[in-house]
Amino acid sequence: MSRPDRGTRAMHQALPPALRDAVDDFAEHLSRVRNRSAHTVRAYVTDLVSLLDHAVRMGCVDLAELDLSVLRSWLARQRTTGAARTSLARRAASARAFSAWAHRAGLLPADVGAALASPRAHRELPSVLRADQAAALVEAPARQAPPPNPPSESGPSEAAEAVRLRDRVLLELLYATGVRVSEACGLDVGDVDHGRRVIRVFGKGGRERSVPYGVPAQRALDDWLRHGRPAMVGARSGDALLLGARGGRLNPTTARQIVGAYAETAGLPRTSPHDLRHSAATHLLEGGADLRAVQELLGHSSLASTQIYTHVSVERLRAAYRQAHPRA
Fold first, then answer.
1. Is 321 among the catalytic positions?
2. Which of 44, 175, 262, 309 is flagged as catalytic?
3. Residues 6+ apart with CB under 8 A from 167
4. Distance separating alpha carbons of residues 174 and 313, to the nearest angstrom
5. 49's torsion region: left (phi>0), alpha (psi -120 to 50) or beta?
């Protein structure tokens, strides 16, 4: 089973053996069959353990006794304890996924979760930089020394220059391609096709896609591979494209710190790698890119996930209208 927090592990151990086995088998199914990330498995397991703990408290000693009333009671309890709508929607999705799996596995006589409704999650419009702000951020490493965060990456001038080149290519790739920070950190040297200027990305569920990048990112890649990476490479580097201070693959947490630190020193709003992804998508649509093409570039399985950026563009247009038109 993926490693949930201490409270969830304690609840898991307190479950009857048959329910513990069901949790472990479901986690294995998510990881090995559905190829879900460790983060997703951990979230589903946490929700499921909470659900089964609630079921046991309601007198369910056997998984076959789990019914729709128990699922609804569990969600109602979550609501009364202050869970947000987004959390309730995710937990309902976890319950439905487990119910469908348990029914197929013969552990439940019916898919009781199929009729479980959940509140529609309120979607905040994503934080998006203006084009000039995004340009200032990705060009920051060329104009300034590496920021002090993370502090472990300070060192002699050659090492500092290598870090600067690494930071530059990280920022260029995040904005040029709109990839997730985990996808950027997971890139290998062989995933870069310099001739066609595309990178091969393995996204959620192991889905592979090719994403193009532009000339500035190509220059940053060339400088990094010729002068930066050789200075940072070590026994732990393997084929990783982006490296950390100790020569291993760059960690997404460190990448987030890098983006945030450069944004702060450039005087920009608090910015994360995902904000750069949002910005890339919004700027593509504002530049006339087709919604389906942006969906494919971002690796969204549903067009609904991509459509949020059309709302961002409309809101930006409304804001400009209200500011500029005399009769707004």
1. no
2. 309
3. 141, 146, 258, 262
4. 20
5. alpha
Question: Is residue 103 flagged as an active site residue?
Answer: no
- What pLDDT does residue 95 have? 95
Q: Which residue among the candidates 29, 91, 180, 249 is catalytic per the annotation?
A: 180
Q: Which residue has the higher pLDDT, 309 or 290?
A: 290
* Single-letter code of the amino acid located at 221: L
Question: What domains can be seen in the chain, in order of their start residue?
Answer: 6-115 (1.10.150), 131-201+208-272 (1.10.443.10)
Is 204 catalytic? The answer is: yes
Residue 324: its pLDDT value, please?
67
Catalytic residue chosen out of the listed positions 34, 200, 274, 316: 274
Give the tens place of pLDDT for each residue, 45-89. Answer: 999 999 999 999 999 888 999 999 999 999 999 988 888 888 888
The one catalytic residue in 20, 72, 197, 300 is 300
Question: Is 180 labeled as catalytic in the residue annotation?
Answer: yes
User: Which one is catalytic: 29, 277, 278, 283?
Assistant: 277
Look at residue 289 and tell me whether its pLDDT is greater than 90. no
Q: What is the pTM of this model?
A: 0.68
Res 326 pLDDT > 90:
no
C-alpha–C-alpha distance, residues 91 and 185, integer Å: 29
Query: Which of 146, 167, 325, 145 has its CA nearest to residue 242?
Result: 167
